[in-house]
Amino acid sequence: KQGSGALLAFAPVFTNLAPVANISGTNGAGSRVSTWKVADNSNQSTTGSGTAGTVDFTGGYLNALVSTLIVGEGESGASSGTGNGVGTFTFTAGTNNVNTLYLGYRVATGGSSAPSGTMNVNGSAVLVANNAICLSYYVANSGSTYASGTLNINGGTVLASTITNGVAAGANTTANISMTGGFLGISSLLGSIGTATAPLKA
Predict the structure, then answer these.
(1) d(CA 55, CA 8)
(2) 10-residue averages of pLDDT along the chain (202 residues)
(3) What is the 3-state secondary structure (H, E, C) of 93-155?
């Protein structure tokens, strides 16, 4: 949904009952949702209109199987626009198991669309990224405007094969990890948290 206030959350009347959201594919047990997007503005290419989306499973449990999760996607194509996708994803319990997670996804090859994506892993929540977490995805040679990606760990657990800054040479300003308690682990022998040539920012 495009707009300034799209929200997916548990109804407050149920949060005292520990509700559960089970999200998976349609091909039987263990299948994954192919693509889940939060704050997707990629249907725009020449506007200044943005979109904001919030997924907040606070107060309940999330159990999700997803192939690609994108939080905050900007305008697409040879964009001349400035419209951003501003996405936030929060959960406090359960397991969000994704293959690839993008936080801030700039797909435009022009213009100044600068989307942002934030993931909050709070409480006892567990985020698993089997392939990678990419903070601030960027199409090479598409200008000097970048997406922003932020991973906040507030007591939760994050296990990722690798965590990358999507902008070569780390030319962007926001590809951050912030921790207040919790656990962050790299699950692959060859995985890393940023690289020497494209480091994270915090």
Answers:
(1) 5
(2) 78 93 93 97 84 96 98 84 90 98 92 93 98 94 89 98 92 92 97 93 71
(3) CEEEEEEEEEEEEECCCCCCCCCEEEEEEECCCEEEEEEEEEEEEECCCCCCCCCEEEEEEEE
Among 38, 41, 61, which residue's Cα sits nearest to residue 51?
41
The confidence score (pLDDT) of residue 3 equals 58
Q: Cα(42)–Cα(105) distance, rounded to whole angstroms?
A: 10
Query: What's residue 112's pLDDT?
Result: 87
Q: Please state the separation of Cα 31 from the chain's center in Å.
A: 20
Closest CA to 100 of 33, 147, 31: 33
Q: What is the DSSP string of 45-100?
A: SS-S--EEEEEE-TTSEEEEEEEEEEEEE---SS------EEEEEEESSEEEEEEE
pTM of the model: 0.94
Task: Quote the pLDDT of residue 2.
Answer: 55
Is there a contact between 66 and 31 (Cβ–Cβ < 8 Å)? Answer: no
Q: List, in order, residues 6 or more apart from 116 with CB less than 8 Å away.
A: 72, 84, 85, 86, 87, 104, 147, 148, 149, 150, 174
| Distance between CA atoms of residues 48 and 113, nearest Å | 8
